[in-house]
Design goal:
Elements lengths: L2 E3 L11 E3 L2 E2 L5 H6 L2 E3 L2 E4 L13 E3 L6 E4 L14 E3 L5 E4 L8 H13 L10 H9 L1
Parallel strand pairs: 1-2, 2-4, 3-5, 4-6, 5-7, 6-8, 7-9
Amino acid sequence: MNDCLAKEAGAMDNCTRVIGDVKYEEISPEMWQRVETIEGTLYIENTDIENLDAINKLTIIGLSTPALVISNNKKLLDIAALISVDIRSEEPAIKFEDNTLVCHNIVERQTLKEWMARNRISVKFTGHCCKLIRFLND
């Protein structure tokens, strides 16, 4: 693994382990493809992202709690990638709030609910979810 400090992560091409607290938008999409581990807290706040695919298979080793903060992402629809994120932290490991458009089909929703129960978090799925899925598929 190639280590880098959080403040250097955006400028280093070969960094696979980031040490320190990271703000999601400070790292490019290309860099997220290389990062395997964060030792610190990952903040995904006030972004325009629609999914969490960039953090698929990420390991987060929380040096403080929460290790993962996902809040105020007004366009966030798809959080399925969370299922593959390995979070090692004291409780509460995750803070999830004010992401009002989260939407999944029944099967994905059940899998996510099981994952959320294991990780002691709750997510409110939008009440218009079925209509939204139908609209996006048309």
